[in-house]
C-alpha cells in the first residue's frame, strides 16, 4: 500500500518541519502554475498562521491535515501549555481534523515522524482516474541454461 510520511516538529519544537517549509513548496508550485499564489495561504493581515486564524486554503491542504491530525488531543507532560500547543509556532491548535482517504499507521512518541496509509477511494470517485496505479516491479529474467561456446562468440 502507498504511504505518506510527515515530519512535524510542533510537539518538540523542531522548526524545520513540513509546516514551516510549506510556503516554499507553494512558491515553487507557483513558479510553474501562476494560479497558485502564496497569498492564498496567508491571513487577511498577510500573516502565516496555523491556528484558528489560518487561511481556509491552508487548513484544507493535505500537509496541514496530516501534520495536525489528532494534535488537538496531544499534551506535553513536561509543560503546562495544555492540549494542542504547537511549540514552534507558539499557538494552540484546537481544530479537530477528520481524514477521509488516509489512516494513521504510526506516530513516534515525540510526534516528529508521522506515517499514514493511503486508503482506496470508492469505485466511482471523480478523482479515481487521476490516481496512478501502483508500481509493479518485475525482476529481470534469470538464465538457467548456459550458452554454448558458439553462441557466446555470436554476441561479441
Structural commentary:
The strands form 2 sheets. A 3-stranded antiparallel sheet has the order 1-5-4, with helices on one face. It has a two-stranded antiparallel ribbon with strand order 2-3. By secondary structure, the protein is an alpha+beta fold. It is built from 4 helices and 5 strands; from the N terminus they run E-H-H-H-E-E-E-E-H. 21% of the residues lie in helices and 13% in strands. It is globular, with a radius of gyration of 23 Å. It has helices at residues 18-32, 56-59, 62-68, 149-154; strands at 3-7, 85-86, 91-92, 102-107, 113-118.
Short synopsis of the structure:
The chain has 156 residues and is an alpha+beta fold. It has helices at 18-32, 56-59, 62-68, 149-154; strands at residues 3-7, 85-86, 91-92, 102-107, 113-118. The strands form two sheets. The chain has a three-stranded antiparallel β-sheet, with helices on one face. Strands 2-3 form a two-stranded antiparallel ribbon.
Shape: globular
SSE string = EHHHEEEEH
Major sheet details: 3 strands, antiparallel
Q: How many beta strands in the DSSP annotation?
A: 5
Number of helices: 4
Poorly predicted regions are none
In terms of DSSP E residues, the strand content is 5-15%
Helix fraction bin:
10-25%
- Euclidean distance between termini CA atoms: 44 Å
Radius of gyration: 23 Å
Please, what is the average pLDDT? 81
